[in-house]
Amino acid sequence: MITPNMHYADLEDSYLFYHIAQKTNAYLREHPQTRLLRMGIGDVTLPLCGAVIRALHEAVDDQAEKERFHGYMPECGAPFLRKAIAEHYRKRGVNLDEEEIFVSSGASDELGDILDLFDRSSNALIIEPAYPAYVDANVIAGRKIIHLPSGEENGFLPEPSPGAEADLIYLCSPNNPTGAVFNRAQLQRWVDFANRNGSIILFDAAYEAFIEDDTVPHSIFELERAETCAIEICSLSKTAGFTGTRLGYTVIPKALSRQGMSFNEMWIRNRTTKTNGVSYIIQKGGAAVFSEEGQRQIFENIRYYKGNAELLMRAFDHLGIWYCGGRNAPYLWIRCPNGMGSWEFFDYLLNEIQVVGTPGEGFGSCGEGYFRFSTFASREDTAEAARRIVRLLEKA
Ligand code: MLT
Predict the structure, then answer these.
(1) How far is the CA of 106 from the centre of ligand 1 (A)?
(2) HSE of 387, CA atoms in CB hemisphere, 13 A
(3) Helix H segments across 215-328?
(4) pLDDT single digits (tens) 2-35
(5) What's the confidence (pLDDT) of residue 13?
(6) Which residues pair with 249 in a beta bridge?
(7) Pocket test for ligand 1, best of 176, 178, 305 (most atoms within 8 A of CB)
(8) Could you tell me if 230 and 203 are in contact, meaning their C-beta atoms sit under 8 angstroms apart?
(9) Using CA atoms in the order 173, 174, 177, 180, what is the torsion angle rounded to 10 degrees?
């Protein structure tokens, strides 16, 4: 008889955002007339920008013509998109070979798939609070997880320390869920630590486009010697509104190897075996993001979300509630008022003012007592949520 992967039994009952959706839907079934304001999952609300839409239409038309039709795409990405991404890095002072860039169907898919590169006996360091998929993907693989808690005392940005010498190290900056960002010096310390210990950093850069501060690196490859210890996982989901369209990219330097094995070559072998590439149409849309017009338009959208962050920050400043994030990231991480637990605060907001956010505990036990707001809702909903929160908490 087949033996299932018993590690599934070690997972939490349900995935965080699925659990929130179920709770929210149950509330809506009982209160169908409610105007619910969703500030939970970080899903974008603005449509794709004009340059991307035009490129998508043109690519659809290509598929209608014998001479311009595309079948299977190169498994590691279309040369035109890899070139556009390499150029984007070059403008930032990071020189990558196009073959170091792998086009993916999104960062969340890739964060799970990339684990194929590492032996299952390797362990993984996860700084918590953390995006829950890091933990779940490693639990499914049966990998040992070292949880490194962070808190207000270190700005949710722990330094490398004894005990953190794991085989794999997850770093996310700008951070989901806290919005905290590593500056150059802090990130360099993690890079040096990883190189010293032979660890590999999985750097989740899904939110880099939200960085405003010059002292904050957008890419780990802006740091010295990162090419010998890091893989960078990027996404167009939040950068350019591709949450539903699905597109991302991963950088695996050719200099990254352990025990004579090149991770770049291994990933080529993996992709050519396990995928047939991302669709031509979507990759054409993705390439438009890196055009001058595309960059201008996506930053207009990002400015809009930053306007939402401003409204929420003003509300929490007014209420005297501690928070971080919001400036270099599309999330605000607040301390729950009046010592409430994070699920308690979730229920309180849902039942009293019909605002949905994400309980900090869903990102690990040290997130208990904290709560995350996404800034990706519409301006109207964000403004209304801020008003409702102020009204509710002023009298609490
Ligand atoms: C989040 O809300 O944390 C993200 O939207 C989830 C994701 O990117 O998969």
Answers:
(1) 11
(2) 7
(3) 237-240, 263-274, 280-289, 292-319
(4) 999 999 999 987 789 999 999 999 999 999 999 9
(5) 77
(6) 103, 234
(7) 176
(8) yes
(9) 90
